[in-house]
Amino acid sequence: MFMLDPDIILLLTHLSKKGYATAFARLDLGGSSTVTPIMPPNVIAIKGNVRVDYDFSRRSLGVEGSNPQEVASAFQDVLDVLKSLGIDLQKALILCEAIVIASVSLSPKFSSNRVEVLDLLGYNLRIVEAGFALEDGDPASPTRWLHVRVVPIYSSYKPSEKENLYRVEVVYRDEREKMMRFIENVVNVLMELLKRV
Questions:
Q1: C-alpha angle with apex 65: 197 to 63, nearest 5 degrees?
Q2: H-helix or E-strand containing 98?
């Protein structure tokens, strides 16, 4: 989430009450706050395998983890705390963005897409990775964007007809509720998408 400057000390206090281990924070005499991250560069709270980070220079608050359900739950905790601090989320949030990085085993689905360049290179090519974006999307849109990239991870020099490992990267911006549903169901959504490719 990119947002206006929240009171980080109060945010940490409320997250601590919800069971998060939080960064050390103190108020200086001039009224400014100093936060010592738990983990560099910006992790300010941890609960289980989920990390909450705040980048002071970009004013971005993030939730990161490897389990989509835990990330969604922590994201909701952060939203609840921000609401309890009196922050109007409709006015304060510039955008919400989900970034997903996953590995998946797939049959070589893109191998049938042939590019004829024998005259240019001396051999023809085939497409072995794919990228998908919203039909009417704009990558600069702060409110609505979806980009999925599927790239093979080469684990052998010999081509195989069996399943290979692919890296899937997703950048998704949308309304908060839609993004939360996407995060909670990311495995099913991505598997269904890749079946249709």
A1: 105
A2: strand 97-106
Tokens read off for 39: 């983990």
Phi, psi of 5 (to 5 degrees): -75, 105
Question: CA-CA distance, 45 to 28, in Å (whole number)?
Answer: 21
Burial of 94 (0-12, 13-18, 19+ CB in 10 A): middle
Count of alpha carbons within 13 angstroms of residue 118, beta-carbon side: 2
DSSP-derived secondary structure letter, 157: S
User: What amino acid occupies position 127?
Assistant: I
What integer pLDDT is reported at residue 19 of this predicted model? Answer: 92
Residue 71, Cα to own-chain centre: how many angstroms?
Answer: 10
Distance CA 12, CA 164 (A): 43
Report strand pairing: 33-36 vs 24-27: antiparallel
**What are 113's two structure tokens?**
């897409």
Please choose, from the candidates 64, 2, 15, 19, the residue with its C-alpha nearest in 3D space to the C-alpha of residue 39: 64
pLDDT of 6 above 80: no
CB count within 10 Å of CB 44 equals 26
For residues 179, 185, 187 and 190, what is the CA-based torsion angle, rounded to 10 degrees?
Answer: -60
Residue 117 has pLDDT above 90, yes or no: no
Checking if the pLDDT of 8 tops 90, the result is no
Asked if 173 contacts 95 with a C-beta cutoff of 8 angstroms, the reply is yes
